[in-house]
Amino acid sequence: MTDQITYPDVVNYAVPLFIAAILVELVWIFVKRRGGRYETRDALTSLLMGAGNVASGVLLGFVAWGVYVWLWDYRLFDLGTGWIVVLACFILDDLRYYWYHRIAHRARWVWAEHVNHHSSQHYNLTTALRQSWTGTFTGMWLLRAPLVLVGFHPAMVLFVGGLNLIYQFWIHTEAIGRMPRWFEAVMNTPSHHRVHHGRNARYLDANYAGVLIVWDRMFGTFVPELDSEKPDYGLVHNLGTFNPLRVAFHEWLAMFRDMARPGLTLRQRLAYAVAPPGWSHDGSRAMTGEIKARHLARHPEDTGTPGFDRN
Amino acid sequence: MPLSILGPMVVIGIAGIAILLHLLGLSRTVTLADNTAARAAWDEEFGNEDPARAVTLAHDGHAALIETAMGRPGIVFAMGADTAARYLDGARVTPIADGLRIDLPDFTAPHIKLHLDAGEAARWPDLIGDNA
């Protein structure tokens, strides 16, 4: 049983801020004629995905919460609620986010829910709200279990997770170029996250950070935004629909169809679920490594430059 | 925040932003300026493995038929201010009032409506071929 500790539901309280910031960005772009693009149906789809994400949290949030509360009874310590504990929880949860996000791009089971966040060909503040409806089904919320077992209260863990999400809102913009150097070195920024949303071969599978970009620098996944190569946003093969239902479920359907193909071994069926996006049993599709290799075959001069300097 | 406040705020916010975007003229569909633009749009998606060999651009520039280097038919079509591209394997073509409708066995691009003039509407089904 949990003690009576509560924190505000910060994501819901941030909704007016989200709406106001979108209006400010839109007016900025419209007046300045630079700093990003908006398109009605794209933005509407993103906003509806965001609303669906909130609704799915209301409907399914009890699953993760119930497990966290159950785990709380088996905690090793009770770390309390001091500000230093909240800060430690925030930083550790940000590390948790880095690994969740990295897995989301490297295992199709999780990519199936995360892909919709990358499905817009635009990059503006509405893109930040293009969130998954099906995250609960991946089981990735279990990555928060160690925090609870160590002794961070479940309510605190969800609170800092909400702060993390709110931080990530403002970095989905082209209206901000680069932040001060020290900030770019430590924090995730619009520049770093534009790279993450790029479908350019150079930028694939990079910059998984939530708040602190230091995780990418530490784990070798950091790629800087190059002035010479603007990110091209969206998916390797972009969607041909704005229908939120299709956006939300298309990759799940494709994955299950692949798993159900006739004539596959059990290992191949499992690989369609857990291997990186682009894996196929007959090698007919391309994963990130192959896409980068094909790019280098046509542009050998890029060898060793950012995004092409890792094996 | 109570749902009684959050719900209406979300609905009004989404509707308001969508209406504002439309009033600002941001609902316009992309126009492919010429065959080069259509070819580039195809090659952005499939150029690595199967680039465009021939292009037939619709009169309004909102779509283009592609013949690929491997001899497969494909299409580039407007997705709002951007484009998407698909092979036409399994395509079913149906005449509609102002052009053609292509149905694809593809959950992410199930229907493509093409606004074509009478000549294009008569020619394009043959160019697409029977892929169903």
From TrEMBL, chain A:
It is a multi-pass membrane protein. GO terms for molecular function: glyceryl-ether monooxygenase activity; iron ion binding. Keywords: Lipid metabolism, Membrane, Oxidoreductase, Transmembrane, Transmembrane helix. It comes from the Bacteria. Residues 86-221 form the Fatty acid hydroxylase domain. GO terms for biological process: lipid biosynthetic process; membrane lipid metabolic process. The chain crosses the membrane at residues 13-31, 43-68, 80-99, 147-170. It holds the Pfam family FA_hydroxylase. Its main location: membrane. PANTHER family: ALKYLGLYCEROL MONOOXYGENASE, STEROL DESATURASE-RELATED PROTEIN. This is Sterol desaturase family protein. The keyword Cell wall biogenesis/degradation does not apply. GO terms for cellular component: endomembrane system; membrane. It is found in: Endomembrane system. InterPro entries: Fatty_acid_hydroxylase (IPR006694), Sterol_desaturase/TMEM195 (IPR051689).
TrEMBL record, chain B:
Keywords: Membrane, Transmembrane, Transmembrane helix. This is Uncharacterized protein. The chain crosses the membrane at residues 6-26. It comes from the Bacteria.
